[in-house]
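Bench log. Compound arrived from synthesis this morning; before running ITC I wanted a structural hypothesis for how beta-D-galactopyranose sits in the protein. Inputs:
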Amino acid sequence: MIKSLSDNIFQFFKYEQTLNNNNLKRNDMKKTLLSICILTLAFSACTNNKKTVELFPERNFDTIVDSKKVAIYTIKNANGMAAQFTNYGARLVDLWVPDKNGKLKDVVWGFENIKGYLNANDLYAGPIVGRFGNRIGKGQFTVDGKSYQLTLNNNGNHLHGGTNGFYKKVWDARSFKNEKGEDALELSYLSPAGEEGYPGNLKIKVIYAITANNELTINYEATTDASTIINPTSHVYFNLHGTTAQSSNSHILTIFADKYTPTDSLLIPTGEIVTVENTPLDFRKPTAVGERIKTDFMALKYGKGYDHNFVLNKKAGEMSLAAEVYEPATGIVMKVSTDQPALQFYSGNFMDGKDTGKRGDVHNYRTGIALEAQNYPDAPNHANFPTAVLKPGETYKQSSIYAFEVKK
Ligand code: GAL
């Protein structure tokens, strides 16, 4: 643009000279030149504008972590829905979906480059967490009569797979077209026996794909060579405004769950499974996230905001709709389906504005929500919770879908 402006000025002086030389009508020529300038400016503005709406600006993810190559990968569909991932932590970096005006919005937290992730204060922006997502009390569990001690990284408990969980690992990546012709990305990782205290060499594979119906599908598979426990989940912070400049408290949320699992003050389940009725956790009818967060929360024993495991209304293993989120300002609707028994809804209570992400978005208090399809937290320590045990010869499988629509 600067170049074209200076070219214009240069041209102007050249023409001035010609004018003097040829005695042409000065005013007419000036008018013509002015029009050329305006046209050039308008043209440059358009070209630049194209640049600003370009989905993926240059993002530097090329680095080596743990002697493995880190990179960025893109998948998309014909409607323009697109996503970027990095194999560092099997993370979703961008997710572009249409809003009610047909404009693409990036609805997830993330950083511009790999440095952002390596230096982040909040470690859980977009990765696959595990081996066990959420908490295990005191990091202890017993499988096949043998007790194990996991690393303790959260107030004396184990959280999201520990200090060096899946979210910090460099996964092997392979882009391909799946059997439906969709763009897909396979990420695989071999977690060696003893990693973070877990038994068994665990092979895990996660496949992300984008369907023609604007769905981000996440399929997991894992096997082990010794009895172990497993509960991986996708830990994405969504903001359907497409920016953290606006709070996610305005999102209208429905969760298809009659029950939840109460916790102690350190967010470890007590083992009870109780009704959501007459609590601010009753999201069976669409309700704004922020509506009851301040007032009614005192009624819950340990409430700083939503950070609860909702027990989904379904038969074991059934794929069903777990939650719906709608943001009136953008018209974006996200529907979460899963075959998992539960969903953790986290309203961003620990978000503190210390991180600045893509496009200068500050990751402030309650500027994103997480809806994590999962087994119940601390499941290995409660006989009444679904089992999280994986044995040799078995294959762990999980399917979750984040589908996008608009409401006008
Ligand atoms: C959530 C968890 C919260 C918090 C958050 C990460 O999955 O439920 O308690 O740990 O991750 O800050």
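What the model suggests: The pocket of beta-D-galactopyranose is lined by residues 122, 124, 134, 159, 235, 267, 307, 344, 346, 350, 370, 372 (CB under 6 Å). Helices lie at 2-22, 26-53, 114-118.
ITC booked for Thursday regardless.
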